[in-house]
Structure formats: C-alpha cells, structure tokens
Request: fold
Amino acid sequence: MVAPMRVVAVVVTYNRRELLLECLDAIARQSAPVADVLVVDNASTDGTPEALRGRAGVTCVRLERNGGGAEGFHHGIRIALERESDWLWLMDDDCVPAPDALERLLASPRAADPAAAVLAPVVKDPGGRLLPINRGHVRPRWFFAPLVAATAEEQAHGAETEIGFSSFVGPLLRTDAARAAGLPMREMFIRFEDVEYLQRLGPERRMWLVGASEIVHKDPQPVAGADLRAMWGDYAQRIPFAQQWKRLYGFRNLIYTARAGGYLSAPQALSQFAVQALRTLLFHERRARTLVLLAAYGLDGWRGRFRNVPPARWGEVATARRPLAFVTREAMVYDSAPATPASSRAPAPSPATPRG
Reply:
C-alpha cells in the first residue's frame, strides 16, 4: 500500500486576520488533508496571533518586522524544510482553495513524475473570473513584461499544461525541489520573488498547470484578463506617491529576475523603463521625484541591489531633500544568515539544515 503524500502548507500573512482565517478554514476543509499548516506572521498588529492561539494543526511563527511577502516565504519555507514532507503548499492569506484543490493536484498524473517540481491550480477571483497573470510562460519581449499569461484554453478544467512561471497563489512545490532551489530572496520584499525562486529549479524540474484544481485569490485590485483592455486598466491606474514603493520594488524585481533568468537584455530593460516612465508622466503625482526613483530602482535591479524602505516610512521619501540618500540610509538591513523568528510554536528543528 502506497503511503499518502505528506503536505505542509505555508501561509504568509500581514494584518489581514479575517482573510487569513477564511484561508485556514478552506485548508481545513480539504478532501485530502494536509499534515501541518505553518502560518508566518509578518509582525501583524490586528490580533492575528491571538486569533490563531490554540487552533488545531496550525503553527504560528511571528517575525520581528514586516519584511514583505518575500521575507515571509523565505522563513516559512526554511522552517517547513525542517519538517518531514513530500510537498509544500504555498499561498498568501487572501487565498481560498476549493475543497478538492489539493486532492486534484495530488491526483494529477504529473504528481507521480519526479521531474514535476510544481503543480499549480487555476486562479480565479471570487466571481469566478480567471486571473491568468498568476501562471504562464517566459518570453523575451520588448516594452512588455517577459511573462506571458496562460491562455483560457490552457486553464480549461481538464487541461494540464507545462508553464514557465507561477505566483505563490497555491502552487504545490515538491520538497526535494525546494531543497535544491534554496530559499526565496527576502531582499526582494514583494512581487516577483516567486518567479525568481521557481526559475531556479531549472528546465529539468518542470512546472505544470492543473486545470482540474482551482483556488480563489481575493486580490483587492486583480487584473482579470490578459488582453490589451485589462492591461491598459492596470497600466492607467493612478497610484498615490505614498504607495509607489510597491510599483518601484516590483519594477526592480522584474528587471533582476529577468536578467538572472537570461531573458532580458540591456536594450530590453531600457524599453521596460521607457514604458514605466511614460506611465509616471501620464498618471502619477510627484512625477519628477518618481522618475528619479524609477531610474534608480531599475538600475538596482540590473545590478542586483535591494534598497527597501519600510512601507510605513515611504511617505517620508516625498519630502526628503535628497530622496535617494534617504532611501539608502533608511533601507532595511539583511544579515548574511537567516534571522530567527521572534517566536514560534513549531517543533524543535531537526539536525538537517536546508540549503539557502
């Protein structure tokens, strides 16, 4: 008799207690139960630890600061790899997997293939619309991001399609593949850390989109579609300066990820900058200051440099006499070794240490 697959779920959260509880309820209802649930709390201030206290089957690890989703998954995967498992199930706190989502992933013929490192469910919004930009293919491109969304046909219910990238919205990652890849780069803070991490698996470890499995992503500002109209709606969105950090970090991370993956040349990177610069001039406030920061963060991405000002302090960049000096001075510090979480109810780690 073949033993059932042992799955450890890793959920990263920050100040979204109600969404997190809904996510955990959905995991608890899975027709194929998980062996353990590890919640990484990025220093929430909304009572998240108290809400999780005493919850059966859930280990809450609270970090000392909010280092973004990248730092949360960095620590979550690190701690998960200290436990016995066959697969890691990765998701944010705004994910709600269908009751049979995990069962359908594990029932895929790809799950029996050791070369299949990632099995990803189809992502939809609460209304049932596809959110295609979470899965797709890598294509070197001018002006447009080198990540091409999976088509509707590739996400059909019975389809199983090989893909080139997946967001951390519910992918099932084979544990030995995670050990080989190391850990997500916590320096990336937010956006594209999942693409960078999974591309380290290499072509010999394949990623599959499993159309029979579904997960709902309660993204407050989803891009529901991959056509020009949907892309224009996202592009033309007016972003206040106080929230520009998210776009700038994302642009930097995209440049870094694509260059590290070998699918972005210097001229193509300049074309990406031109598109974002035009977006700044057309739609955003504090245009001159934002353009300076956009150029600096794009260059950081090309050079592999990461300057992350905590979001709570980003507003000060608007009034700083020398914004780039402020960004450099106030950037978060990353030690060479992984930091220890502030508190954890996890079992004592085994002697084995994952690669990182």
Remarks:
- Residues 337-356 have pLDDT under 50 and may be disordered.
- Residues 142 and 268 are 5 Å apart (CA to CA).
